[in-house]
Amino acid sequence: MAENLSALATESSSTYQDLELQTVDTILRQINAEDKTVPFAVEKVIPKIEALVPEIVKRMKQGGRLFYIGAGTSGRLGVVDASECPPTYGVPHDWVIGIIAGGDSAIRKAVEFAEDDFEQGYRDLEKYNIGAGDVVVGIAASGRTPYVIGALRQCRINGIATGAVVCNKNSAMAADCDICVEIETGPEFVTGSTRMKAGTATKMVLNMLTTSVMIRLGHVKGNKMIDMQLTNLKLIERGTRMVMEETGLNELDAKELLLSTGSVRKAVDAHRG
Description:
Layout: H1 24-35, H2 38-43, H3 46-61, E1 66-70, H4 72-89, E2 96-100, H5 120-126, E3 135-140, H6 146-157, E4 161-166, E5 179-182, H7 197-216, H8 233-247, H9 251-261, H10 264-272
Parallel strand pairs: 1-2, 1-3, 3-4, 4-5
Helix pairs in contact: 3-7, 4-7, 5-6, 8-9, 8-10, 9-10
């Protein structure tokens, strides 16, 4: 797969030159100009995201789980998105799972050559007793990471639904998954630094994916996170406001009801009897 690296758009030379000679203001404005292109690139792949969402929803309604698997920045973004689902939507911690090549220590410190192990990705999934009712979404800016491709390929062999989020067109990963979201983010401001536009685009797609899934699974009412976990004072205050809006209770009574029931949904249901 290494022989194709130079052909990838994300590895193409930056359109900006002599960066070390630029003023800070110029550098920041040039980065910002490139970042502005990302939402338009994401917009073009909405039909692919739309195709992936119901496949995930269908399996999760039947007790399946969503797995993200990736390496480096891509793996970290998967872990971040998965980690945010329980507090945001009140779902179990083992419902959306992020796996990164090299293990959790690689979240903070890169593990050399972990992404190059073709077999390890599926072995890491097996630790969670992966099964046909689950969904695995591979994440790789290049679309060619062996760790991810190996995992997706074995999943398909075993009848497990697969998707992918990549940042290059006609990626190698597209051949090894059911639905591939290929965001064309183009050359990076710093050549090959895919933590920049590619990372931003990937995070946007993951946000869209899990938000849509959680809405479809009933964890949002109106526009409110009615099942969010009350893990800090800010969230308790937010939840109290939600209860007040839904029930007409004053702040003191709404907060007391919220804390006694444990969630906005339960508080509103209890009030309505």
